[in-house]
Every structure is written in structure tokens, then in C-alpha cells.
TrEMBL record, chains A, B:
It comes from Flavimaricola marinus. Residues 171-360 form the S-Me-THD-like C-terminal domain. Coiled coil: none annotated. Pfam families: S-Me-THD_C, S-Me-THD_N. Residues 11-167 form the S-Me-THD N-terminal domain. This is Hydantoinase/oxoprolinase. It comes from the Bacteria.
Length: 367, 367
């Protein structure tokens, strides 16, 4: 365990991969390829320094990085490896300044690795924090936008040499829509750099310490496995969460809609949860968990699905009929629970205006 | 008639509208709204100076302008009016220089008016020429691309305040694809500025004198109508073309495919052409004319459909079953007939590899 990660080394990558995948809440893309690329960079002698949020100078220029695309494609279409670096350079050209530090748009899933990879390539530090504290399906669902920083100028780059700049838009939803349309043309995977921010703002708006959190969470799972302890319990203990259900998947409906994996899964409880039925709605990420048709946990709190035996996180595209899973609820960070945040990442923003968000934290869970 | 238009005045707009619509070969969008906007600017006392191609300084910076979108939408979704101006400013920011003159991407249809409107707004001259000498459905079908000038950096702006910059792409087809995807998000109409060029290149690559040509062609139609002469013959005489058929539309298949109006119309000749059958294939513009199943005229030569009685050009979205039309073939400019040009705007580029382009000019028509 580490209080504050100061540098990401070769030995840390596996733990960050696992922790980031769990925080991906079923989406966010697979961090595996990114991990391999980071490993390659570190083996070349390059470094990934991590700068704690409170040590970031107020006038530092920070850019938010991440890949964009359908998660399904990320597995099949491997990036060339410098997409985010080229997108970063394009944003630097827009603002006419060199960037001082990088930050992950989204710690959950593949975008945990993208800024670390670019950091190694560009010789820059990554900030210990991110803009989501988990994964969300749309770009404007990010604390930069929520707390007043515009995404523009933003830039997208693909492996073929395309560079598209979103210089001005009426609001950040337009950046999402325009970037989404461009990424389909580019072949459904690209690097995106956005929201050039002052350090002072990042300190207020970033979900703090999430690189360290991903590392420690992954470390807890690895240690539990090594010591033959229950990895599911290790996740719950680390995050102050709650086991919602051990269950079998008895129905699964999932289709691609507007570039997103949308659908739901129906669950039949077993063990301590025998007799319970469950349902999880998803849009790339798991959004809402209901027990016996009553909503119990919903976005922005985290719904995590783990393989009941191995404790490995299961992403939405890996769901299978008959799988035995453990469903966990983990409380989200306080920055995602404010009225401004709930307007953007609460259940209504996902098309569930009838669902009221009752924070897990208010029910006595940690955070 | 004018040898070389030196300025577009209020009195010239109607003629340019008609000439440009004829050169639109069924597509290119309706120049009507653009004409009204130009009129408004001229009434405010603003000017639209025209600079002949041979007077353009070699080191002048010229930008190509036009609207982009589905022609059907152009009629229904009226632009705010400064889309092209904002796109122009975005390209100026990209190259770090002020532009000296504007040129139409496409003289056929609505894009005849866009650069004139922006010229009045920005206090710049328009060059007497364009990049197509007619209308074509895709952006890379332009002499700038054909003769070696890249479209990038290009910029798109809509009426809502979105500005997207295409900074780098592997080739100009990517600009077309990315711009097409963006314009769908923007609501299917936007202004596009592209291909910042040196005057020296424009003098070599532009189809020369097409603003004057559109004016004179429209003037010829207006004069024929006024003098009760045949307007169809006036078009043929002015352009050195040929009457292909007077006919009734007996079948019409037209659908939207990838943002384009695609289809064909079947014709039954009458008058001197009684007994002949005809077919015209289209993609926004009329592409191929066949008589009795033998191709007679095809892109890049111009196939123009006029109302048989009034001589008014009929655009693809205005085609109706039972209409009586005059089909004309007009020879394209020599710059569209080179091997480099035919690779991009010949019949194979539109999905007709089996059609051989035999220039009308080679058959004894003018140009």
C-alpha cells in the first residue's frame, strides 16, 4: 500500500490495471494494452512521475487525456501508441503554451493508462487524480465540465495521422457529439486531449488521489489472492462499499446504440441472497442496481460486477448468461454528489428521471 | 455581357443566381438564400470586388470557401449568415496570417454566393474562378486537391457557435469524411474554409473566370426570356453545348444515402427525340446520361436539366414524375479532363468503372 504514489514503476502496473478495471464499473475500456505500452516505455528507461494534487503549482498548465471510442473496438483495434501525444501537441498549439502536467480524464478502465503512457513519452508528470473517479460513458460527464472548465479547445488524433481540433462549441455536450461523430469516421478509436486548465482549478475540481487509489485497490486484490483471502471482501474493505448480491445472470439484453453498449441484466440471487431477484441497467457502465424491483444503488455511486470466484472485474462486453457474479456497491466521491454534479451524472442524465439518487454514503457506507 | 466582372453589384445578383444554378447540374444547393444575403450586404453599402485570376499576386493568400451539407437541408435550415466568415477566421488563426482574397470552392449552386457574402462581410475580394467549374458532391473533387494543394488546415463553423478545425489528415478524402460526419452533428449545414493557397497556385489550378461565366450565362437566359427567344438555346449557345433530349420523366428513383441524394430518372423522348429512351444517374448532381442504354455524356462534362418551357434549371430534389424537361450536355473545362482530374471526378470515382469518359469537346463541342 502507498499513501501517495510518487512514481509509477514496472512493479506497479499490474495493480493499477486491476484497480482501474474495478473503478471502470463495467466500462471504460480494457487497460491491458495500455499497460503493455507503459511497460515498454518504462523498460526503455522512461519515467512516469506522479505529482500529488496538493503539490501542483496554481499556474501549472494541465491537460486532460483519454482515449475515445466504443469499448468493444478498443479490444480489437489496437492504437498505434502516440495518439494522445499528438492530441496533446495539438492542444498546446491551440493555447500557444507548453503543458506542465497531464491528468486522466477517467481513472476507470483504459484511460487510467493513457496519460501515464503519454507522460512517459513527453517527459511530463501525471497528476494523482482524474475527472471522473470511475468511468462514465460521455465526455461531458467530467468534473472539469461540472465545475466550470470548458473542454475546448480539445483535439483528437488517430493512428492514421488525422488531427481534428474542437476550437469552440456552445457547450461541452457539443464536444462529445462532434468527437463521437469523428471517432466513428476514424475507425472508432482515437486519443483526445481536452480542457487546458490551471493547476489552481485542477486542485479544486479533480477527484483526488485516484492514481494511488487504483494502485492500492489493485494491490489489495492481488494480496488477497496471494494470501488466499476473499478478493471480493478486499475490494469492499478498501473502498468502504457493500456486497449487494451474489447472483447468477439469468437474462441479458445488450445492444449497440449510438456507439454505446446499452441494455440490462437480470439476476437470480444465491447463497445469502437466495430468493432475491436483481436487475442492473447499463450504458457502457453499470448504472442502476435494483433488488426485487426496488432501486438500491445508482449512478454516480459505483456498481461493480466481479467474478464470484476469482474476484476479477467483469466488463459489460464480457457478460455471459449463467455467469456467477458478485455485485458490489461502492460510494462515489463527494465531488460527484453535489447538485451540479448530479445534474450531469445522476440517474436523470442517463434517462432515468424517476430514479432518486440516495447516496450510499448517506446509508452509512464510507467516504 | 461582361468580359471580366470587376465587382458584383445589386443588378448582377439575379443573373449569377441563374447561371450558378445551371452550372450546379442538379446539385450544389439553391443559391437563392445566399443571393438575398448578398443583396442585404450590398444594400448596407458593402462591396463585392472581383479580382481576375491573372491579376492575383503570386504571394497572395487565398482561401477556398463554401457551405457543406445535404442540399435538401439547405432549403429548410437557413444559415445564420456568418458561418463562412467564422470558418475563414479559424483558418487564418491556423496559418497565423490574414487572407488576401476568397475563392469559391464550387461555382455551381449555393456555393457561388457564399464567398461573395463573406467577401462583403470581411472587406475582401473574390477571385474570378473556382475549384470545380460546376458542382460535385464531395469535397475532394476539387482542382485544389487534384493539382496538389492539401485541403488542410480546414475549418467548419455552424450557426450555433461550433468551430471544428481539420488540422492534419492523411489525404483530402479524410477531410471530406470527417467534415461530413461533423455536419450531420451540426444539423446538416455549415460553412467551410479550406486549402489556404498561394496566388501562384490558384492561377494554375482554378477553373478561370467562372464568376463572370455564371453572370454571363444567367444574363443570356434573362435576355432570351425578355426577348421571347428560346432560353434553352441561349444556354447551349453560351456554353458551346448540345441538346441531348427533350423528354418526359417516366420513372424516378431517389433516396438519401450517406447524406447524398442518390438515384436515377428514366426519360421518354418527345418532339425531335420521340422514340428515344433516356436515363440519368445522379448523386446530388447529374452524373451520367444514356440514350437507349448507351452512355452519351458523363462526368466531368455537365449534364443540365432545364424545364422545357421556362428554361429554369431543375435541381435533383425538384424532379417530379411527368415533368417535361430539356436535357443538355455542356463540355467541362480542360482542367477537369486531365488524367489527374479524371481519377478524381471521372465516372469511375462515382462507382461507374465500366463507363468510359469521352469528352464532349472531342466530339466537336466547344471548349
Amino acid at each position: 500500500m502507498s499513501d501517495t504514489l510518487r512514481e509509477v514503476t514496472l512493479e506497479d502496473l499490474d495493480a493499477i490495471e486491476i484497480g482501474a478495471a474495478i473503478l471502470g464499473t463495467g466500462g471504460g475500456g480494457n487497460p491491458y494494452i495500455g499497460k503493455l505500452r507503459c511497460r515498454e516505455e518504462l523498460r526503455k528507461g522512461r519515467k512516469i512521475p506522479v505529482i500529488p494534487l496538493n503539490e501542483l503549482p496554481d499556474d501549472a498548465l494541465v491537460v486532460s487525456l483519454g482515449g475515445i471510442g466504443a469499448p468493444v473496438v478498443g479490444v480489437e483495434k489496437i492504437e498505434e501508441g502516440e495518439e494522445c501525444l499528438r492530441a496533446l501537441r495539438a492542444v498546446e498549439q491551440e493555447v500557444g503554451k507548453k503543458v506542465d502536467a497531464l491528468i486522466s480524464a477517467e481513472i476507470g478502465g483504459a484511460n487510467s493508462m493513457e496519460p501515464m503512457l503519454t507522460a512517459a513519452q513527453a517527459g511530463l508528470p501525471v497528476v494523482d487524480g482524474d475527472g471522473m473517479g470511475r468511468a462514465f460513458p460521455e465526455m461531458q460527464m467530467i468534473t472539469w465540465s461540472i465545475y466550470g472548465q470548458r473542454s475546448t479547445p480539445a483535439a483528437m488524433a488517430d493512428e492514421k495521422g488525422n488531427i481534428v481540433v474542437f476550437r469552440e462549441t456552445p457547450n461541452d455536450k457539443w464536444v462529445e457529439d462532434l468527437a463521437r461523430a469523428s471517432v466513428v469516421v476514424m475507425g472508432a478509436a482515437a486519443g483526445l486531449a481536452q480542457a487546458p486548465m490551471r493547476g489552481e482549478f485542477v486542485k479544486r475540481a479533480a477527484i483526488p488521489g485516484t492514481v494511488t487509489q487504483a494502485y492500492n485497490l489493485g494491490r489489495a486484490v492481488l494480496d488477497a489472492n496471494r494470501d488466499h483471502r476473499d478478493p471480493v471482501q478486499a475490494v469492499i474493505d478498501h473502498e468502504g462499499g457493500r456486497l449487494l448480491m451474489t447472483a447468477k445472470i439469468v437474462d441479458l439484453e445488450r445492444h449497440l446504440k449510438g456507439g454505446f453498449a446499452v441494455g440490462h441484466l437480470s439476476l437470480e440471487g444465491y447463497g445469502a441472497f437466495a430468493g432475491d431477484s436483481g436487475k442492473i441497467n447499463l450504458q457502457n457502465e453499470f448504472l442502476i442496481f435494483a433488488r426485487n424491483e426496488v432501486v438500491e444503488v445508482c449512478v454516480p455511486d459505483l456498481i461493480v460486477v466481479l467474478d464470484a470466484d476469482t474476484g476479477h472485474p467483469i466488463t459489460t462486453e464480457m457478460l455471459r448468461y449463467g455467469q456467477r457474479i458478485a455485485v458490489l456497491g461502492l460510494p462515489c466521491h463527494a465531488l460527484l454528489r453535489t447538485p451540479e454534479a448530479l445534474a450531469v451524472v445522476g440517474p436523470a442524465a442517463f434517462g432515468y428521471p424517476e430514479v432518486e439518487f440516495v447516496p450510499m454514503a448517506a446509508k452509512g457506507d464510507a467516504k
